[in-house]
What does this fold into?
Amino acid sequence: MYDFSYHNPDSVAGAVSAMNKAEDGKFVAGGQTMLPTMKHRLASPSDIIVLGGIAELSGITVDGDSISIGAMTTHAEVAASSDVQAMIPALAALAANIGDPAVRNCGTIGGSVANNDPAADYPAAVIALGATVKTSKREISADDFFTGMFETALEEDELITAISFPKADAAAYMKFENPASRYAIVGVFVAKTGDDVRVGITGATPCAHRGMRLEGVLNSNFSGDALESVEIPVDKMNADIHASAEYRAHLVKVMTRRAVAACS
It folds into this structure.
């Protein structure tokens, strides 16, 4: 690693202040992405602002028909939460299948959402559930948050503080995973609230996105058979050693069908 200045603030205000004073600072949540990146010298920030000492960023609270999860809450804590299991069991199941125990006990929901890895699981849930990303400056709707590969609507000195998820009548997440990393080759989160269906897709394209074609059909007929008529554009699909673009397009429909079945 290169030399850098280390900061361990105990408040959101302190973290933002340290970032504003840094030449090229980076917030670090669980460190599951940033630390390996630095070790391989793919990044050399001037300052590291560690968020682990900020108590206000952790915890899970229920507020009526929504549940708010602090940005520094780990995947393991989300998976084990009785509140999450009761309100949105699909979200708890998603968290329980991220990486391995070491990753789940270090990685955080805020870090994952802010990093916006193309194959991460949480972005699909944020989109499908119509979540609200709360930051040190504002609140950002799910539809406006994810803007591109590893890119979000966050400003340089903006910090995720919590994510608020509304309760769905039915929800399920299905993914075809890389057997080594458990990253999603394709992951589909389906959420149904009343007559409204939302679909979040990850792994298939450079950025997690809503499956608008799938939603259009499912809002009329919430069944797996209704998906047969949907055509998934192959030209926008990722292609790598794990799966071709054509195979990913096929998996989008397969995972959506499975998620719909799980919601029934």
Summary: The two ends are 50 Å apart (CA to CA). The chain is about 35% helix and 25% strand. The mean pLDDT is 96. The first strand starts at residue 5 and ends at 7.
